[in-house]
Amino acid sequence: MFDRREFIAAATAVGATAVASAATPRQKARIDRSRVWRIGSPPSIANLQLVTRDTPTPAAGEVLVRVVASSINARDRGIVAGFFPIGTNKASIPLSEGAGEIIAVGPDVTRVKVGDRVTSCHFPNWVTGRWSPDVYERDIGNTVDGWLGEKVILPASGIVVLPPQISFDAAATLASSGVTAWHALFEIARVRPGQTVLTLGTGGVSTIGLQLAKAAGARVVVTSSRDDKLARMRELGADLGVNYRSTAAWGERVRELTGGVDIVLENVGRPTLDESMNACAPSATIVMIGTGPLPKELPKMPGFYQKNLLLKAISNGSRQMFEDLLAGMVTARINPVIDRTFTFEQAIEAFREMEAGDHIGKVLIRHP
Ligand SMILES: NC(=O)c1ccc[n+]([C@@H]2O[C@H](COP(=O)([O-])OP(=O)(O)OC[C@H]3O[C@@H](n4cnc5c(N)ncnc54)[C@H](OP(=O)(O)O)[C@@H]3O)[C@@H](O)[C@H]2O)c1
Questions:
Q1: Mutation probe of ligand 1 site: the residue of 123, 227, 268, 287 with most atoms within 8 A of C-beta
Q2: Domain limits at 164?
Q3: Based on the domain organization, do 284 and 340 belong to the same domain?
Q4: Do 183 and 130 belong together in one domain?
Q5: Sign of dihedral through CA atoms 314, 179, 84, 89?
Q6: Predicted model pTM
């Protein structure tokens, strides 16, 4: 009986082209053709195109992954609609988060192998150390092709092997949201038990940020536009919630309730910076994560000098941070919050769900 995985493993070992050409035309069709969603022209959610292509063979420095699940970030929604505030989109296949199994590796790839359960860094060139703008040269789903396909090529340098305790679904939500929240809390703010963390909103970054901060022993405050979302965040462990729609001066309200927070995960960006500063205790750290636009009225940055605040922007994180995040999730038994799951064929509906903003946590896509 023909076994597709055995066949692909063998093809990788002895040379994919030679083995593939020995297959019957019907077998070849099953092996070599797979579907991807491509960004349309002009780019828009409605114009995403489901196409069937020849499955590419990994070149030097690349791996081929059979994708099990992927998920959507705020920026992916922007990219498919032709807008991203940093860098220029060059990818034709979107999505920076996903997980799957390696089914072939390029000729020189030795650090990962066929059969590994994996995910990939957002920035495959950032292995360890400090961030550099050069990492944008290879930004999955933005400057190189991303995860929204049945079988996708990824740079081997960014591949992260999954611990057995981490499911494909969980892993598929982490490369952007999870690594960014980890970087903010543990590398920048160095959160300690007993500190108070404010995390804005109920989306992907905020929700895993809540889970990680609680695991570190922090008190966590969440803001949202909806009371039902705040109630759900309380169920997930949040200690306090403030509705930023009904309480315009929500930063001051957070300060009243907590005495001032030590760390802010600023998941919106410049539009909410002033209120975030109002929420802070002296010497607090605000980590700028959200890429929200400059508001019409320039931020006044209240308390920046008076409270001696530390303001630090971050762009995702390194492969080392991703590996640390996975180890931390295993120890703390963190399971990311997946709000809704769509099939691969329903990718357009999944993007629309993100656009509607009704989700808490992540919107997942399960691949065939
Ligand atoms: N720097 C980085 O490396 C990095 C990495 C990942 C993401 N990001 C950025 O981080 C932001 C969040 O990304 P995401 O994927 O988590 O998005 P998401 O899942 O779409 O969530 C966005 C959330 O923002 C909240 N929100 C909107 N306006 C708000 C306001 N005025 N005050 C408080 N919350 C508000 C909403 O919360 P409610 O619905 O509860 O009101 C919504 O749930 C985006 O700007 C994204 O581009 C940056």
A1: 268
A2: 4-173+336-366
A3: no
A4: no
A5: positive
A6: 0.92
